[in-house]
Specification:
Helices cover about 30% and strands about 35% of the residues. Strands 1, 2, 3, 4, 5, 6 and 7 form a seven-stranded antiparallel beta sheet that branches. α1 runs antiparallel to α3 and α3 packs antiparallel against α4. The longest helix has 15 residues. The termini are far apart.
Length: about 150
């Protein structure tokens, strides 16, 4: 995998890759944070060698000034070479204490979704890179509904 460098000062997103060192995914290494764009992420996603590791690596993408993180990892491959990915959506949500009447607080929320095929993953991340979070959330819910 070739290193990605920041070529445009308007890039807002960074990524890192968690690479497991054992098949139980209990030990691993995380690369340094690197700047990325939507196109560079798609190139990385398309060219990563998922099968070269004891367990599939995880690609994390986030905005440094945001509390939102999106990650993807290969979950399974069928006999027909269809791929299923797991996408994690990590964010902070605001809520009010005392049955909605108290102070506003934030809590961490992590949701995972299953997405069949690379095109679905690329569509979700495209919405994320374009800051269309409502569209991204609808796509993720749709993917989960299709698997139910």
């Amino acid at each position: 995998m070739k290193p990605i460098t920041q070529t445009n000062t308007t890039l807002r997103f960074q990524f890192d890759i968690y690479t497991p060192l054992d098949s139980e995914n209990s030990k691993g290494e995380t690369t340094q944070k690197k700047w990325t764009s939507e196109k560079e992420f798609i190139d990385l996603f398309e060219n990563i060698e998922w099968s070269n590791y004891p367990a599939p690596p995880t690609i994390n993408v986030y905005e440094p000034n945001s509390n939102i993180l999106l990650w993807v990892s290969l979950y399974a491959t069928s006999d027909d070479n269809d791929e299923m990915f797991i996408v994690g959506y990590h964010r902070f949500v605001q809520f009010r204490t005392l049955l909605g009447l108290g102070k506003v607080k934030e809590k961490e929320k992590m949701t995972t979704y299953f997405v069949v095929g690379r095109d679905g993953v690329k569509s979700v991340f495209s919405s994320y890179f374009q800051s269309h979070l409502n569209s991204m959330e609808k796509q993720l819910e749709k993917f989960n509904a299709e698997l139910s």
